[in-house]
């Protein structure tokens, strides 16, 4: 049974970079799963941010075009973690951020972290 | 980007009643439609993948149907734990997108 846990600062200043890490246990991130980030502004719906998946020694990243210019998703197989960096944040980036794991690149997500609230405020 | 439109926004029903939730895609997505349930303060929970495949541990009262652009999630007889928000997601094209959600509330 895969388990995912998000970690990172809960408060980020406007114009700075939001950085989150997801630690995966119960399985390897270099498996056939796809690892995604999804966010949910308070009281609103879900937005897919992007994902990373591995194929042998190569990894592939997929980004939401609406965030692509500010977004980097990376993985660390030695730590079994994947990470999100979102630059130049504004109040509109305030949300609960979830990491999730699913089968295939165009994934549906079986496994979710508990989510972490990130507030963008000075 | 494929837009998913869920209706109704809110469904007010009593325990024991049946619920029918709709998700319409802006273009054909074959059967690549997923349903999640989300309760307050919790992460979404996978219910149905690829239009009609119940996830492990999901009760048989949850069923999904549809293809192309029109999809339905049916809950045959609502139990107290089923009152939640339901989201659809398409996995046919990048970027992955979610519908706006349907809240099933107690009448």
Could you give the topology of this structure?
The complex is a heterodimer of chains A (122) and B (107).
Chain A: E1 3-7, E2 11-12, E3 18-25, E4 33-40, E5 47-55, E6 58-63, E7 71-76, E8 81-86, E9 95-103, E10 108-112, E11 116-120
Parallel strand pairs in A: 2-11
Antiparallel strand pairs in A: 1-3, 3-8, 4-5, 4-9, 5-6, 7-8, 9-10, 9-11
Chain B: E1 4-7, E2 10-13, E3 19-25, E4 33-38, E5 45-49, E6 53-54, E7 62-67, E8 70-75, E9 85-90, E10 97-98, E11 102-106
Parallel strand pairs in B: 2-11
Antiparallel strand pairs in B: 1-3, 3-8, 4-5, 4-9, 5-6, 7-8, 9-10, 9-11
Keywords for this entry:
heterodimer, A: 122 residues, mainly beta, seven-stranded mixed β-sheet, four-stranded antiparallel β-sheet, globular, B: 107 residues, 11 strands
Write up what this structure looks like.
The complex is a heterodimer of chains A (122) and B (107). By secondary structure, chain A is mainly β. Chain A has strands at 3-7, 11-12, 18-25, 33-40, 47-55, 58-63, 71-76, 81-86, 95-103, 108-112, 116-120. In chain A, the strands form 2 sheets. In chain A, strands 2, 4, 5, 6, 9, 10 and 11 form a 7-stranded mixed beta sheet that branches. A 4-stranded antiparallel beta sheet of chain A has the order 1-3-8-7, with no helix packed on it. In chain A, β7 and β8 form a beta hairpin. In chain A, 38% of the residues are buried. The model of chain A has no long low-confidence stretch (mean pLDDT 96). Chain B is an all-beta fold and 107 residues long. Helix content of chain B is 0%, strand content 50%. In chain B, strands 2, 4, 5, 6, 9, 10 and 11 form a 7-stranded mixed beta sheet that branches. Chain B is globular, with a radius of gyration of 13 Å. The model of chain B has no long low-confidence stretch (mean pLDDT 98).
